[in-house]
Amino acid sequence: xxxxxxxxxxxxxxxxxxxxxxxxxxxxxxxxxxxxxxxxxxxxxxxxxxxxxxxxxxxxxxxxxxxxxxxxxxxxxxxxxxxxxxxxxxxxxxxxxxxxxxxxxxxxxxxxxxxxxxxxxxxxxxxxxxxxxxxxxxxxxxxxxxxxxxxxxxxxxxxxxxxxxxxxxxxxxxxxxxxxxxxxxxxxxxxxxxxxxxxxxxxxxxxxxxxxxxxxxxxxxxxxxxxxxxxxxxxxxxxxxxxxxxxxxxx
Length: 251
What we know:
The chain is an all-alpha fold. It folds into two domains: 48 residues; 198 residues, no CATH class. Helices cover 70% and strands 2% of the residues. It has ten helices and two strands, in the order αααααααααβαβ. A two-stranded antiparallel ribbon has the order 1-2. The relative contact order is 0.15.
């Protein structure tokens, strides 16, 4: 009787062991299947996810030059007390490269546009694969107006205009102040020297032209802030021209 009980016990133990082993095998298979499913979903998501924004540092540097220029000229005001003061203002106003400023304004606008989540999301719809990205680039190069029809472009345009309006208003105030002073100077005590003949007009004109041909060097700190804002999408959502401006350096 006892041997029979022992054999029965061994049989039960064997069955239990087999069940445990079968359960382990089944669990391992399920785990492997789940891991494969997660990996497949991750791969599919990666295929649908556009690459992260990576702005060329040169764009941030161009934008920094524009900001420094706009802030610098916005400080000009009338009320000149001497010919030397007027000459200093003329040098300040002419000491920039128009082409560099034009590029800088476009660069600054592009960074402002990147502060719009709607615009970034809209552009990303076309960047989920290399072919789509290249087609979008080619379309914009062929007709820059294409960018205006991208999803979220209206929001980005609103941010750009809000930022540039600050600069426009500041520069307009500077221009109006100088224009008003030009009329006032004809009627006050400064008239005596204001209407005096300028003996070195050609030299002054040549000097102004020489200054206009010298490129401006961007502020490293401003460039870094703009570069970070462009790549993170935050930091320049509001007009930046009300901040203190680093001085313009010329090469």
